[in-house]
Amino acid sequence: xxxxxxxxxNGRRVLHAEGVSLPSVAVRFGTPTxxxxxxxxxxxxxxxxxxxxxxxxxxxxxxxxNLAVIRTFARxxxxxxxxxxxxxxxxLGAGIAPEKLVFAGPGKTRDEMEHALTLGVGQFNVESPxxxxxxDAAARAGGTRARVALRVNPDVDAGTHDKIATxxxxxxxxxxxxxxxxxxxxxxxxxxIEPVGLAVHIGSQLTxxxxxxxxxxxxxxxxxxxxxxxxxxxxxxxxxGLGVRYRxxxxxxxxxxxxxxxxxxxxxxxxxxxxxxxxxxxxxxxxLTRVILVKQAGERSCAxxxxxxxxxxxxxxxxxWHAIETVAEAAPGGxxxxxxxxxxxxESADVLGRSRRLPPLAAGDLLALRDVxxxxxxxxxxxxxxxxxxxxxxxxxxxxxxxxRQDHEALLARDLVPSWLT
Length: 422
Prior knowledge:
With 422 residues, the protein is α/β, with parallel strands linked by helices.
């Protein structure tokens, strides 16, 4: 069920997040504001847990790192997939125990490794021989051992956008599958390393099961080879990447994905780990923005709004498409105008939606960009000295601020002027 729907309010139909009207959110918190529906987060997690009941779920924090979002999944039993020391601190702050963390990513620093080892992080996904040696040295220096899964690059094209494909030969991620056997053997001989398995992640926003199947078959063959050589393999990380519907995509049903994960588990007799991000959070968020003015841009209408590419990078970075709706429901059969929705940032890329059929817009109208719960606020910047947007969460009729809007004073306070300029 969609947590965002039109409902009656004061004689008109307006978009709601669960039981809270989005106009009331805009009045209370201003715009641009990210609004998340807690019920959607819970429903998505429960659907995934039901589809893959024997898999361990590690929420991929990079998709949305708000503490309220992470805590929602932590209370449902999730661990976390982290990429940095900052994400490590966020996971702990949200209540996830260190042993339920998987530290992934191709560029962990020595300081990050040492801190994670001190805390007792459950697993490191290692992506290169150099990283393995660095982690071994850090573990030995701390008098401990690091539990390690080697991340495999299976040379599988996920068929997704080039900028979010991660499993092809030549991508910066993982270890070529032909090098895994030798490196696993070397890892087993290192004093500071305890190899426990393999991991793979071939990209994000996958809309077919075939690339998953190809990557997982490669993992199965590698595990068989490692076991034949006498190595123990306890865990297999299947990554994330299951796509969502933004426009007209038809991603696999989550039950089919879960069945695939279960087949891997049964075939190998291992603990299976999955690291979903986008699938859990994308549909749970909208970005509220208000029209500043409307102008003509050639043959099309152009509505300039107060949200911009610094608030939502995906359209500029990936040519991503997000549905855009008027918060006040359009009259059935009413007139529409082909409209560009553009932000105020001084970049031609600052267009959130092109050629959208919308009712004629006017200054002050509220719009909602859909499916922005993933890679929205987490990628926001302060370009053009624009403070970071507010974030709120709804649960039923309750509304709470979960990240206040940054103010200009806080933005300026980050800068220090050297003494020779004062």
